[in-house]
Automatic annotation (TrEMBL):
UniProt-listed InterPro entries: O-mannosyl-transferase_TMTC, TPR-like_helical_dom_sf, TPR_rpt
PROSITE patterns registered for this protein in UniProt: TPR
Domain of life: Bacteria
Keyword annotations from UniProtKB, A to Z: Membrane, Repeat, TPR repeat, Transmembrane, Transmembrane helix
Pfam families named in the record: TPR_1, TPR_16
Descriptive protein name: Tetratricopeptide repeat protein
TPR repeat locations: 465-498, 631-664
PANTHER family: PROTEIN O-MANNOSYL-TRANSFERASE TMTC4, PTHR44227
SMART domains named in the record: TPR (SM00028)
Transmembrane segments: 91-111, 123-142, 148-170, 177-205, 225-248, 260-280, 300-319, 326-343, 355-374, 386-407
């Protein structure tokens, strides 16, 4: 009874410390991938979309490059948006935290159930609560809890633990396959659930069959190993089928961004880094500057391979003794959870939030092994209270130091500025970190500082299109139009399918009063991604200035589908019906400083002669807006469409020119040219 009471007291004390440690995190802002998955993702703004999250990968992100099937994550985000009445970080952060607390409760019962198979009471309860508290307060986990979209790690781990706990606590119910249901839900959170099959496999053999890892390779145990494999066929098949379904919904899986061999070897050192971070969680960075190590004889590669070898040896040795087989299982858990990100070459060699799932196993191993050592020298500890009290003091100190670390990391994650400044300090060779910090300075009007950081980032990321987008924005904001154009065009040349490059260039051109050019860029951005609201806003502004009322009406309607009730889109929709030019704050409004129809016609001819036929057409539309019966403008439109080989549009424009001026010989000639090609 005293044991139960003590466990409750420890749990309550731990919860209080946990709340204090995370007390400064609940209003932390959105960061990094949060923007395209949450802030710009209009699909989370309507709860009616929830069923579609499980069939439409585009609803996960506003960026087509990140479309994926993590429906459970998107569902919880939609609920947060609904409860918070919008993008209120408080509700998003609390939601993640509550899932985390629920996970920790489940971990205690999971750890206890595993330890009861190795230790006699009251050891399982105490070791279980210590392992749980260490995991709950671990400083590294702040990297996951503060990063809202990293909730995928929390959710997938939560459902993995539910499935694992059901499996080990109710073995007699396995034939009903209840334990499979949580695992299938977890598949819709992140692609880590297949690791559960590996963990269950070794649980059956090490804990239930009481075999060592070495025993698995003995012929006499083949039947036992085979039976374990057969027992896990239902969950293996079920998870594989659902995982294949989610992956099939992804339009395209990013190709290998790093050389496989070197990447895998580098991961050996990354594993060592993760292991050390469990005991010394220092120098954490939201975006490291680590790169693939390409020298096979680099001391980091050698140290990493030595660690992996030591890890394998430790797994084999601890599996020999019944009381330390849980240690072996925890180490296997640690290794297996890191395999997916170690065997698939990602652009980022390491990410601190990848430790979250791995530390579930490592917490179990470390605490269990320490408990084993204490029990082995139990007589010494009982004989000298100083040892016992000292051990308790060390445990409490470790927990409090981790809690302090959490509190400090929460401060770093407070805003975009604080986060990316920390990255520039911890990872000075990370060009993306330098760029993102520059963006925060641009937002504050500190253009000199922003320019310095962007220039520092350029040699580190000379082919990164997003960098040049931001350089273009900065040059435009500081009155350097030639350099702004140069950088935007550089971004487009580096990544012709980057909708953001066209969209931000369009916004800049629109603000500069270069409306026809802005239209071209915005329409290209819309073609690449019709769900990006920034592009839609620019298009509405452009169409309104050009008086393209049908285009404006359709764009406003498209915007309202994504943003129901949006005031800006509603105003533009009304303007399209009444043909009203709305005031454009911050935009050089061409509707208020028009050229004459003749000047627009001259402009179109100039564009035509330089081969810029789209701009020629736009200039003619500007002329027609001021002079609807301008036959010469229709003729130039027809000639430009003919050059673009859009013969039907060319013929239609020339016919309008001849209807207004039957004696227009140029229009007649261009019409005949178009008709002759249409007959072929």
């Amino acid at each position: 009874m005293n044991t139960k009471r003590n466990i409750i007291i420890i749990a309550i004390a731990a919860l209080i410390v946990l709340l204090v440690a995370y007390s400064n995190h609940f209003r932390n802002q959105f960061h990094f991938d949060d923007f395209h998955t949450i802030v710009d993702n209009t699909y989370i703004r309507d709860l009616k979309n929830i069923p579609h999250y499980f069939t439409e990968s585009k609803m996960f992100s506003a960026n087509p490059d990140h479309w994926g099937m993590r429906a459970m994550v998107t569902t919880t985000l939609a609920i947060d948006y609904h409860l918070g009445g919008g993008l209120n970080p408080l509700f998003f952060q609390w939601d993640t935290f509550l899932w985390f607390v629920g996970l920790c409760v489940l971990l205690y019962f999971t750890y206890k159930a595993l330890l009861q198979k190795s230790y006699e009471a009251p050891w399982p309860q105490y070791l279980g609560i210590i392992a749980t508290v260490w995991f709950a307060l671990h400083t590294v986990n702040a990297e996951t809890l503060n990063y809202v979209i990293a909730r995928s790690d929390v959710l997938s781990t939560f459902f993995i633990i539910v499935s694992f706990l059901i499996f080990i606590v109710w073995p007699q119910k396995r034939k009903y396959c209840y334990y499979i249901i949580p695992a299938l839900i977890g598949v819709f959170a992140k692609e880590t659930v297949p690791v559960l099959v590996i963990i269950l496999f070794f649980y059956l053999l090490l804990i239930e069959a009481e075999l060592s890892v070495a025993d698995l390779f003995k012929l006499k145990n083949f039947k036992t190993v085979w039976n374990a494999f057969v027992k896990l066929l239902p969950i293996t098949i079920a998870v594989a089928v659902v995982q294949l379904y989610t992956l099939s919904k992804v339009p395209s899986i990013p190709g290998i961004t790093n050389p496989f061999g070197y990447y895998v070897l580098t991961q050996a050192y990354v594993w060592l880094h993760y292991f050390i971070s469990f005991f010394l969680p220092m120098n954490l960075s939201a975006d490291t500057d680590w790169t693939v190590i390409r020298n096979l004889f680099d001391e980091r590669i050698i140290a990493g391979l030595a660690f992996v070898a030591a890890l394998v040896i430790a797994i084999f040795r601890t599996s020999k003794n019944k009381q330390t087989r849980v240690v072996s299982l925890g180490l296997i858990w640690f290794a297996a959870s890191l395999l997916p990100t170690s065997l698939a070459p990602f652009a980022e060699v390491t990410n601190d939030h990848r430790m979250f799932f791995a530390f579930v196993g490592l917490s179990l191993s470390v605490v269990t092994y320490l408990g084993y050592l204490v029990k082995k020298h139990q007589a010494t500890f009982l004989a000298n209270p100083l040892y016992k009290n000292g051990l308790i003091g060390v445990i409490v100190l470790v927990m409090l130091l981790n809690a302090y670390g959490v509190y400090q990391r929460n401060k770093v994650w407070r805003t975009e500025e604080t986060l990316w400044y920390d990255v520039t300090v911890k990872s000075p060779l990370n060009g993306r970190g330098l760029m993102n910090y520059a963006i925060t300075q641009m937002a504050k009007g500190n253009f000199t500082v922003a320019n310095d950081y962007l220039e520092r980032a350029t040699p580190l990321m000379p082919y990164y299109s997003t960098l040049y987008i931001n350089k273009g924005i900065l040059k435009g904001a500081t009155g350097q139009p030639a350099l702004a154009d140069e950088n935007f065009k550089k971004a487009i040349s580096l990544n012709p399918n980057d909708y953001e490059a066209y969209s931000f260039y369009a916004g800049y051109l629109n603000r500069a009063g270069r409306t026809p050019e802005a239209r071209l860029m915005a329409e290209k951005a819309y073609q690449l991604n019709p769900y990006y609201t920034t592009t839609l806003q620019t298009l509405m502004s452009v169409y309104n200035q050009l008086g393209l009322w049908e285009n404006l009406q359709q764009t406003a309607l498209n915007t309202l589908k994504l943003l129901p009730g949006n005031k800006e889109a509603t105003a533009y929709l009304e303007a399209s019906k009444t043909h009203s030019y709305l005031a454009q704050p911050g935009v050089a409004n061409t509707a208020k400083r028009d050229l004459t129809p003749q000047q627009y016609l001259d402009q179109s001819l100039s564009y035509y002669n330089t081969g810029d036929y789209q701009k020629c057409i736009l200039a003619c539309f500007n002329a027609l807006r001021l002079k609807p019966d301008y036959a010469a403008a229709y003729n130039n439109i027809g000639a430009a469409y003919n050059q673009l080989k859009q013969w039907d549009k060319g013929a239609a424009a020339c016919k309008k020119a001849l209807a207004l001026d039957p004696n227009n010989k140029l229009a007649a000639g261009n019409l005949n040219w178009a008709l002759s090609h249409m007959k072929k």
